[in-house]
Fold this protein.
Amino acid sequence: MSAVLAAWDRFWLAPASLRRLALFRIALALLVLQDVIGTARVVLRDAAALDAGDPNLWWSPILLFQVLGWPPLGLAAAEMLYSAMLVLPVLVALGIGTRVTCFALALGFLYWTGLIYGFGKPHHDKVALAFALMALWVGPAGRVYSIDAWLRRRRRGGEPAEGDLAPWAALPLRFTQISAVFGYAFAGWSKLAISGLAWANGYSLQGIMLGHDNVWAELLTRRVELCALLSVGALALQSTFPLILFFPRLRWLYLPGAVAFHVGTWHTMDTGPYITLWFTLLAFLPLEQVPRWFHAELSSRSPWRVARALLSTGVPVALSVYVFAVHSPVVAALLLLASTTYLLRRNRTYGARANSSG
């Protein structure tokens, strides 16, 4: 029993990379900012309709709102919340009063999302993000890559930066991983519990796709064998997703598989892009390796390595921002995924060379 408890403690509280947690903090903050800007029209429209007494507006609060007694907001209060939700992600990304601003952002995001779901249809695309934000303020998310860390070093006379590993740094990442894992796993397990393997006969997926009139659905539903193959793949991906917790190298299978799954369902079943779920999957990636590799390349005396480092990071990020803002968030997400994967793989190659030469 003691061995089980020790393993449990190691899973949640073992020292982890502060840089990885800080980069995850920045990614979550930018993700919330994007989500708030994208959904502001819906929230402010419903708030204005509430003030106008629109008889067609139906308030059906989620359980959290029922338990805490949180009411819907009128237009003035919704505009104040919107202003706060534009400022808080920036403060979190910069690492200003990190623990307090992370906590405030988590509460604000819960309220903001609850307003959307209370006047509309609840979805599960933001569940992992909400759990990630609730856990982020518990960990030392502002110890590096933050204004807080810079001010702390200034107050202490410019002391050198602390080591990368720290207790509690893993907890927000683990909490996010667990919420994402069981989100996928329960979807697969429920299919198996209700329909068994018969769900993967191809006809179930074909019937769902036939209800959506688009090019992708029309192409895939022509052959039931293809639908059966896709059904088996989706069922296997979802129901075995927890394996990623025990075999981390499987992330290179499950994470691209999850993105491909969401791209497919978006373009065949009009589910939406699920951007807020895709980027929480960053919790599975060793993000701390990216700046390590980047610094090694910039510190080299090779102009080619310096240029490669700048191009391999700057170009994908610039393209992603442009595409996300102007064209397609899916293409932007795929660009970021591809560039992050490249940088991680390059860093692993660099680390192998350094170890062999040392």
